[in-house]
Amino acid sequence: MNNEHGQSVPSSGPFRPPNQALPQQQQQHLPQQSIRPVNPTSTPPPGPRPPAQAGVPGRPPFPAAHAPPTAQGMPMRPAARPMMPPVRPKTPPQQHQQQQHSQPQTNPAMRPMRPVGPIPSSPQRPIAQPHAPVDQQLSPAFNAMHLQQQPRSMPQQQPPQPHPMQQRPQPPQQSPAQQPMQPVQPMQPAASQSMQQVPQVRASGRSKRVYAVNPEVAAASTGPGGMATASPPWPHGLPQQQQPQQQPQQQPQQQPHPAAPGMSPSAQPVRPASHSASAGVGYHNGPYAHTGQQLPPELRPPQQPRPRIDPDQMPAPVQVREQDQALFGDKFFGTIERDRVPLATTTYIGLDQGNCNPRYMRATVDKIPHSKDLADTSKLPLGLVIQPLAKQRPDEVPLQVVNHGEEGPVRCTRCRAYISPWCTFVSGGSRFICSICSHSNEVPSWYFANVDMSGRRVDIEQRPELRYGSVEFEVPKDYFSSRQPAPLSTVFAIDVSAQSVRNGTLEATCKALLHTLFGPNEVDSRLPEGNRIGIITYDRAVHFYNLAPALTQAQMLVVPDIGDMFLPLQDGFLADPKESSHVIIALLKNLPNLYKDTTHVEAVYTSAVLGGMMALQNTGGRLYIFQSCLPNYGPDLLRARDDKALYNTDKEKQLTNPASEAYKDLAKKCVENAVCVHAYLTAPQYTDVATLGTIPGLTGGDIRYYPEFTLRESERLLHQLDHDVHRETGYDGVMRIRCSDGLQVIDHYGNCNMSTYTDMELSGIDQDKAIAAVLKHDSKLDVNRGASFQCALLYTTQTGQRRVRVHNLNLNVTNQIAEVFRAGDEDTALSILFRQAIFDMHHKKRRDIHDHLTQICVQVLTAYRTNCAASTSAGQLILPEAFKLLPIYIHCILRSHALRGVGVDINADMRSAALHLYNSLGVAELVTTVYPRLYALHKMSEEAGIPNGRGEVKLPSMMRVSYERLEASGAYLLDNGSDMYLWLGSRISSELLELLLGVSRLDQVDASMVKLPVLDNPLSTRVNHIAQQLQSDRSRALQLRIVRQEMDPIEFAFSTWMAEDRNAEVQTYVDYMCVLHRKIQDEMKKSNNYY
């Protein structure tokens, strides 16, 4: 059947075993993402090109409503997207199919849905209108790609066939000068770390250079005897060719690149005619590529092989995020209408209709497999990522607070789930059916209300818990812990050793505390009413300060016996910053002068933590500790164990595990006393983050790791501390996730302590923290009933109120594997896979984890290929629409600080800090960290950088993250979540430099600046607005890093964030896709599905 767009709609069919192919007529309707080849040697003939138009060069204009999606470098014809028949969204029983809000809603049948047709160029989510292909007016370069065109006479009602990557037929005999690019040679043995250049001689007598690549990639493209084959894994099926004779002493010849669609030749990236060896072979625009200056060998960027396939044909997050933002950005999203859920990176407006906002809870698939067999067949991870205190948009409805008095919230007597919109009232309203366990419960007399003919309570308008998916319940004393709820108390412990004074940690911390507590004017307290603070300093002893408001200045009490810690005063240590502001301000201003001449080089750590815990044990709270050196004094001192001989070996996991069990025991004591510890580590040398981070990891805190900290980064510390103290925070919490009968939670991942198999103890929880839960079937689910999930967080607010925050989610259940793939969420799946890999880093070999992640990706794509696209040719690489970014995301986390090999730019401390960070990030911030955001400042649209009426700034169009796409005449801004790099090309114009930085030459730029200058011109104002918007999207302070091409050594660190390029361990994204293709075909051979 066809939908309202004239596109084919798949019909549901029975579930089939994994090795049983679907009929061909059904497979044509399944969501597919195909990749087409590009001839790397295809060049347009001499002569004028046809007039270019944005999107497709050489084609006549299309109507605006039917403009086909295109990708830079290769225009592709979209295929019509198969869609499921419109299904009326499920409504909670108490809603009675009635809208509770006046906001305009979209008819589900008319909602644009996620595309599932083959869109090999720019991966897009919104549907594209079909159009008749134009075969007559293609440019020569386009015709040279041998792309298959649909016949014009194809009936409109016939669904278009997918266009996956097919083997290219053998070309006609060509002259030697016209021979296409030869396949690459296999990589040299692993014993040699440097890549070898092997010159080759063309038949024309001119040489070209062959670039060594990963052995898996090279082996995949060559057959016995070094002959290139037209068989997998190369998806484009290169024809068999003779290997040319090797001839040294020849120079490489640069292959011309066709102009990108919609871009003039002058706007194309500048390709140098020659490349310096310091930049790596094939690393066209890499650091130090165009100068005779040589980088040290350890700082040379990884060599980039010449791509065999046009990278523009590979799916990338850039287009997917922008298309989703265009579809959902600043628009209402009703949480019941889950035919398609906005991406986590999209700024939609959530409208709670009975399911919680996706910001709070996301599932890896929005249609749950009805059985374990179906889930195992799909190979997809099944789980949830929950961010219970996630920050809402200002224009969203705040969470409703419900108070049921001394009786407390209404709950199921069997599973103890809370009342929700998905509970059903029966027997005239005297009983309700639990949405989790289906148990019939008696309604308390004080909660009884009559129901109408449809079972809807007559008082539903006065019951937020029956209307909204997320609510908060005020709870009675039965829900209190061993401590009485009280406003939040905070202790700051500051290292005052000689190292802290030398590198500026003490001075920067005191300035940051003054700003955080009292603002820039140092007048009124910025903390909520009733909050109290305490201050500790420490070196080889621990110093407590009396901050009583009756004092004129603070009194210091010293505890020298750190082996037997005690709290020297009971009253006065914790003080109200509003009442004792004069004492606190004077103390923070005097501390740098008080210790400026200190000679104590020793500093404790656990003793300071223990002292802060003792001060907070009666009320609970949070402790911020600022450490500037390795703890080298006291009973729990640490020794430097950063043995570089263990790097990249099987014993490397020892460096990511704590060195002493004493730190884990202290962490458990902090959990018992509801004390959340946040560690700021500023040591210039090895600090043993793996051990010091044990306490924040179990108590729900953060590790802020600033290696080689100086006063130049004091603004960064100030911004970070201000954010951490004032964000929405709870403490003394316990969280449990409940799910429908037939499912169970088997694993939890996050910064928490598992007190029991089901309960997570959270000494502290804030708006930036997320918890992942992995699910498993224990019986079959009812397809007609759906699956319900409920997350309940019992915690104390900053103002001292004891509450339960409840998030509810009800998802459809399916017995069709195609629907499981179609309703997937690759961002959430990545978060769960990454957390599982982080957990394995403490127990398994890193290489094995790499292989395991790649194998998971292969298994998912193979399952889709086998069960949803079995009739396609073996030479095709088919990607499911909802998981087409899974390969690039897996490629990104393999090269992240958490999982990549330790080298000159990353050490054991950086890896441990990254492991802790990625284990707690929410979905949105995780995916924008592993695949950073890159913007071209010299080619922004006119509306980019201009604030709207709400103060939100429109960001420029994102770029794919690769050095190949950087122009030497441009300026680029890269946001990776912790740093903001401003990359300036070596041939940047003086006019652009004047507008951005106020200088006329590149050598006049201050590479040590930490803030962009605010100049009196529109471009400077817009760039500053963009930088502020990027910072507001992040939970971590972004440190500005100036990178001048071929001038600053930091350019190497910048190059490591080029997610689509290769590094010392991981091949390029293109090559990684080829390896995946070969492995998929191997898996298909094993299951007898290879044809």
UniProtKB/TrEMBL annotation:
Residues 954-1025 form the Gelsolin-like domain. One of its GO terms (biological process) is intracellular protein transport. Keywords: Protein transport, Transport. It comes from the Eukaryota. GO terms for cellular component: COPII vesicle coat; endoplasmic reticulum exit site. Residues 730-814 form the Sec23/Sec24 beta-sandwich domain. InterPro entries: ADF-H/Gelsolin-like_dom_sf (IPR029006), Beta-sandwich_Sec23_24 (IPR012990), Gelsolin-like_dom (IPR007123), Gelsolin-like_dom_sf (IPR036180), Sec23/24_helical_dom (IPR006900), Sec23/24_helical_dom_sf (IPR036175), Sec23/24_trunk_dom (IPR006896), SEC23_SEC24_subfamily (IPR050550). Residues 485-722 form the Sec23/Sec24 trunk domain. The keyword Cell membrane does not apply. Residues 1-315 are annotated as: Disordered. Gene3D superfamilies: beta-sandwich domain of Sec23/24, Sec23/Sec24 helical domain, Severin, von Willebrand factor, type A domain, Zn-finger domain of Sec23/24. Residues 18-41, 64-82, 93-105, 175-194, 239-256 have a biased composition (Low complexity). One of its GO terms (molecular function) is SNARE binding. Residues 1-11 have a biased composition (Polar residues). Residues 825-927 form the Sec23/Sec24 helical domain. Residues 409-447 form the Zinc finger Sec23/Sec24-type domain. Residues 42-51, 83-92, 157-174 have a biased composition (Pro residues). PANTHER family: SEC24-RELATED PROTEIN, SECRETORY 24CD, ISOFORM C. Belongs to the SEC23/SEC24 family. SEC24 subfamily. This is Sec23/Sec24 trunk domain-domain-containing protein. The lineage of its organism: Eukaryota, Fungi, Fungi incertae sedis, Mucoromycota, Mucoromycotina.
